[in-house]
Write a structure and sequence with these properties.
Helix content: 40-55%
Structural class: alpha+beta
CATH superfamily of the largest domain: Multidrug efflux transporter AcrB pore domain
CATH architecture of the largest domain: 2-Layer Sandwich
Shape: elongated
Largest sheet: 4 strands, antiparallel
Number of domains: 3
Length: 278
């Protein structure tokens, strides 16, 4: 007896099975996930390390091999493949299939710790390994913010305020800002004047770095109260940078030359950044 004959002779069972499969199929269909951007897990990370001036062979021996050796200590690792170029090392790792979204963050933390432990063994002149493990992020919306008459700094402030409001929306995991201008102050120095005064670029960098450093001023105990001492002098405006006195061994020699001229003009005997640049 074949299946067709059995279906005809057992009509009750055939009708019941047909209705059961139909109802079960409809119920399963309406229970299927219907996400516009469904979640998916990417189990790949990339470690990029720069080594300026090194050849491809030097990058492989001094950077790539050392990082790969450390990564192979991970039991979660499935595969490692790398590419060594002049001045650049790129290593990609795949994690085993049994590690899903709920366990991957811990795996990435272990990998970062492994690489952090061996950073001191990298050669001088090499950059810090950059780890990228967020390939799975999907941006669903792109919003543009514009405003006539507003500066770039004001637009950035409004964009950050908008980001704070959007981050509390259910389902939002990450918000990135694109097109943000970096805050920079340029100092244009007259090369001829600087050369005559014997001031180098390192003198200017050292002066700026030492002035804007944050140090602990300590505390003052008065009876039953303790007051914190907060040193001043940090940069608050471009004018504060212009008024900064340059610290250099050459400045002490130059000050003797400028002393008579500055006295006659009623100015102080210090050489400021505004005297040599704009």
């Amino acid at each position: 007896m074949n299946l067709a004959e059995l279906s005809i002779s057992k009509r009750t069972i055939t009708y019941f099975s047909t209705v059961l499969l139909t109802v079960g199929g409809l119920f399963s269909f309406f229970q299927l996930g219907q996400l516009e951007d469904p979640e998916f897990t990417i189990k790949t990370a990339a470690i990029v390390t720069s080594y300026p001036g090194a050849s491809a062979k030097q990058v492989e021996l001094e950077i790539t091999d050392r990082i790969e050796t450390k990564l192979q200590e991970m039991s979660e690792l499935k595969q490692v493949y790398s590419s060594s170029r002049p001045g650049l090392s790129i290593i990609k790792v795949d994690i085993k299939n049994e590690y899903w979204l709920d366990r991957l963050p811990q795996v990435w933390d272990v990998m970062r710790k492994k690489i952090g432990d061996m950073e001191d063994s990298l050669p001088p002149g090499s950059g810090k390994p950059q780890i990228n493990d967020d390939f799975g992020y999907v941006f669903g919306f792109m919003l543009a913010l514009s405003g006539d008459g507003f500066s770039a700094a004001e637009l950035e402030t409004y964009a950050k305020d908008l980001r704070k409001e959007l981050q509390v929306v259910s389902g939002v995991a990450r918000i990135d800002l694109w097109g943000v201008q970096e805050k920079r102050i340029f100092i244009d120095v007259a090369e001829t004047q600087v050369t005559q005064l014997g001031i180098t670029k390192e003198d200017l960098l050292r002066t700026l770095r030492n002035q804007n450093i944050i140090v602990d001023g300590g505390n003052v105990d008065l009876q039953d109260q303790r007051f914190r001492v907060a040193p001043t002098g940090e940069f608050t405006s471009p004018e504060a940078i212009a008024d900064l006195a340059i610290t250099s061994s050459a400045v002490s020699n130059v000050s003797q030359t400028l002393q008579n001229r500055q006295r006659s003009q009623g100015a102080d005997q210090l050489l400021h950044i505004r005297d040599i640049g704009t």
